[in-house]
Design goal:
The complex is a heterodimer of chains A (90) and B (657). By secondary structure, chain A is of the alpha+beta class. Chain A is built from two helices and four strands; from the N terminus they run βαββαβ. Chain A is globular, with a radius of gyration of 14 Å. Chain B is α+β, with helices and mostly antiparallel strands and 657 residues long. Chain B has three domains: 205 residues, Aldehyde Ferredoxin Oxidoreductase,  A, domain 1, CATH 3.60.9.10; 165 residues, Aldehyde Ferredoxin Oxidoreductase Protein, subunit A, domain 2; 225 residues, Aldehyde Ferredoxin Oxidoreductase Protein, subunit A, domain 3 (Orthogonal Bundle). The chains are: A alpha+beta (90), B alpha+beta (657). The structure holds iron/sulfur cluster (SF4) (2 copies). The site of one iron/sulfur cluster has 15 residues of chain A, from helix 1 and strand 3.
């Protein structure tokens, strides 16, 4: 996912399923904690109970460049990479 | 309780009806909400002396007040009920609480708008309770009865969607095995000592919970800033990297000293069950809701008879201790038994393996016949596996094991006090032994809590090699007066360097706070979150300024309500008795271990423990003779209505037993 400012990177293998990203996202948007109201769906594999966040592109606005989900994830499963504003190509 | 409301959902299983009662906040707040108010509801509704497996028993499931908010480890659900473990020779039963985390279930309840779920009566046939936005559906579960926990859990999640939380009982709970527990979200166990059997007696196979509602707090900006501060504090913990790599597989170096049954040389135990062995089967570590310290595990048995079998939960400590007790060298076999318990039968691994250890050794020594029906009680894995299965099915001698320690005494004339590891009190075997562990406050609370299990009460004192200053530092955040701290940290000839009796009473009140709020005990265990932090969180969440002193005072009120319920059942100080085995030296290949205080200043005698019990009751303002609340103590806590009309405390019913 990309914006003018940066890109949200999902590290699927690092996710532990704590749901903090969903709670932080909904809180930033609505002032309530509500996974169902967040831009993140948590995939769940029933064979292993492995989870991974899936960002709904249409609902996510990258929080204007300071993603709440990235700040909330303590497992490094979501990071935000700033994109250079000027890129020189050859 | 969320900002502004507290809603209890009632389900009358007999009548097939459900309804919601909203409680005024000024009635809820003195008990903090969550399990605190759940205890109060039970005190008002549960008649004394009912059969725990009869329809009159009540189950109260309480997600913590902070569950569903983004803060450190707010994932806990606490269940309160009358447990079916036979707790005395004259068949009394305690009313107890148990607590567990999870990722979906407690959060699902709260998102559906259910702050507390109360189960009354008994369903005429097996049911699943489906908690969804706006209501409970009571659905037929005939097709799920007789099926294992994991199969049913997966089925229900598939049916309800990936965000659905599940609480499921196994085949052992259906058969009313008295130690059976329930499993939440496949990864967390809840209620050894028989919550699973109580649900089985009510024909409740499972509860599934999901909702789409949001969780509001009174002061969102303040609350979120506090949470961010606490999460950052935990994220910066120097040992975090190690902890999140191993979860509950961590800590072998401490464990091998504190929970050693003393039968094998330590190096042998290291080789067979140590950290390297754990790493062979550990596959992943899973977090509960909002927890920056994940601890739940997924394993896969590497090779052998059970190669490729996978499981969820935490298998290592249990299998290592029982493996040594039973003399089973192949850890994979013990992990297989944990898998069976967690994913199929739901019987309690600790109690079942220890009774099997007791019976097989007694048979070996010729104290009971080796032949029992068509079972040969010879020591060895095949016998253990068979008895494990027979217990879950209540078949043959398994029926005796399923009824617990007092039934073993009745059938075989074997005194549970003769069991050689950890000890038995109120019909429950302790998970740790006070000799290798030493007599720290968790050991004391095994005696004084209604249900002899830790129940989420850990503090700094449960870790090895800490200093008295660290203990003092933690307690200093609990909002206790200078005089109280002085009493706790003044040594007496019978205590060692601090007074475990006095400390334990406040530790239990702190546990009531954590359980009501839903904050996992790992944060006080590792001294990462303190009483005053929880007071700030609670204040911001509910919109009432509550300092740490008032917070723990409310915890004390909850402890007193819990005690009154148990005094009604006839429990007194006589039941809070330290097991005999603590006072017998444990002979290990490395030498003899006697029960010492935490700092190893002295060997403790029964007289010493009795004097610390005196101090525990004194600290609570309860009578020393019987260890029951006085009318003055209850009045002081605003619980005068628990004193009956004749001017006696209801507690005195205990005396008339
Ligand atoms: S992405 Fe991070 S915050 Fe979200 S559930 Fe996974 S581990 Fe938790
Ligand atoms: S960047 Fe913001 S909007 Fe997008 S998923 Fe993360 S928290 Fe939600």
């Amino acid at each position: 996912m990309e914006s003018g400012a940066g890109r949200l990177v999902v590290w699927r293998d690092r996710c532990r399923g704590c749901r903090s990203c969903q709670l932080a996202c909904s809180f930033r948007k609505t002032g309530e904690y509500n996974p169902s109201g967040s831009a993140i769906v948590l995939e769940r594999d029933l064979a292993t109970e492995k989870t991974a966040p899936m960002i709904r592109a249409l609902s996510c606005d990258l929080c204007g460049g300071r993603p709440a989900c990235v700040e909330a994830c303590t497992y490094g499963a979501l990071t935000f990479e700033l994109l250079p504003r000027i890129e020189v190509r050859y | 309780m969320r900002a502004g409301t507290d809603k209890t959902w009632f389900v009358d299983l007999t009548a097939g009806k459900s309804w919601v009662e909203e409680s005024p906040l000024d009635e809820v707040a003195p008990y903090l909400g969550g399990s605190g108010y759940g205890w109060r509801l039970l005190a008002d509704r549960l008649p004394a002396r009912v059969d725990p497996l009869g329809p009159e028993n009540i189950v109260v499931l309480n997600p913590g007040v902070l569950v569903g908010t983004r803060t450190v480890g707010a994932s806990k659900l606490t269940a309160i009920t009358k447990f079916p473990t036979v707790a005395s020779a004259d068949r009394r039963f305690f009313v107890g609480s148990c607590t567990s985390g999870g990722r979906y279930f407690a959060l699902g309840l709260r998102q559906a708008g259910c702050d507390r779920l109360v189960l009354l009566g008994k369903a005429p046939r097996p049911v699943v309770l489906a908690i969804r936005d706006g209501g409970v559906a009571i659905e037929d579960a005939s097709h799920l009865w007789g099926k294992g926990i994991d199969e049913v859990s997966r089925h229900l999640v598939k049916q309800e969607g990936p965000d659905a939380g599940v609480l499921v009982i196994g085949t052992g709970g259906e058969k009313l095995v008295r130690n059976a527990l329930a499993i939440i979200d496949r990864t967390n166990s809840l209620g050894r000592g028989g919550l699973g059997a109580v649900l089985g007696s009510k024909n409740v196979k499972a509860i599934v919970a999901r909702g789409t509602g949001g969780i509001r707090v009174a002061d969102p900006a303040r609350y979120d800033a506090l949470s961010t501060e606490l999460v950052s504090r935990v994220a910066a913990w120097p040992r975090r990297a190690h902890w999140i790599k191993l979860g509950l597989a961590a800590g072998w170096d401490t464990f091998k000293h504190t929970q050693n049954p003393g039968m094998w040389p330590k190096e042998r135990w290291d080789d067979l069950y140590g950290e390297a062995k754990r790493m062979e089967s550990l596959r992943s570590v899973i977090a509960c809701t909002s927890c920056p310290l994940s601890c739940r595990l997924r394993w896969e048995i590497p090779g052998g008879q059970f190669g490729g079998e996978t499981g969820l939960g935490s298998p290592y400590s249990k299998s290592a201790t029982s493996g040594q007790l039973l003399g089973i060298e192949d850890d994979r076999k013990m992990i297989h038994l944990v898998t069976q318990a967690n994913s199929l039968t739901g019987i309690d691994f600790y109690t079942t393996t220890r009774i099997i250890d007791f019976l097989t050794r007694m048979a070996e020594e010729g104290r009971i016949p080796r032949r029992q029906g068509d079972v040969d009680l010879s020591r060895g894995y095949e016998t253990v596996e068979r008895l494990f299965r027979m217990t879950a099915d209540r078949e043959g001698i398994g029926d005796v094991i399923a009824d617990g320690w007092y039934r073993v005494e009745e059938e075989f004339g074997l005194d549970p006090q003769d069991y050689w590891y950890a000890g038995v009190c109120k019909g429950i075997d302790f998970i740790y032994d006070a000799r290798p562990s030493r007599f720290h406050p968790l050991m004391m609370t095994f005696l004084t809590r209604p249900r002899p299990h830790h129940g989420g009460s850990h503090t700094r004192t449960n870790s090895r090699n800490k200093t008295l200053e660290e203990f003092r530092e933690q307690v200093a955040h609990w909002g206790l007066s200078a005089e109280t701290l002085e009493r706790i940290f003044t040594a007496a000839p019978y205590t060692g360097k601090f007074n475990v009796g006095r400390y334990t009473s406040h530790m239990e009140d702190m546990m009531q706070v954590k359980n009501a709020l839903g904050i996992c005990t790992i944060y006080t265990y590792q001294a990462l979150v303190f009483g005053d932090d929880m007071a700030r969180l609670y204040s911001a969440a509910v919109g009432e300024e509550v300092g740490p002193g008032e917070l723990i005072r409310r915890g004390e009120r909850i402890s007193n309500v819990a005690k009154v319920l148990n005094v009604r059942e006839g429990f007194t100080r006589l039941d809070d008795r330290a097991p005999d085995v603590w006072f017998r030296p444990m002979n290990t290949p490395e030498g003899t271990i006697e029960m010492e205080d935490y700092f190893q200043t002295k060997v403790l005698t029964r007289e010493d423990v009795e004097r610390m019990l005196d101090d525990y009751y004194d600290e609570r303002g309860w009578t020393r003779e019987l260890g029951i609340p006085t009318p003055e103590a209850l009045e002081g806590l605003g619980l005068a209505d628990l004193i009956d009309g004749s001017g006696k405390t209801r507690t005195e019913t205990g005396r008339q037993r």
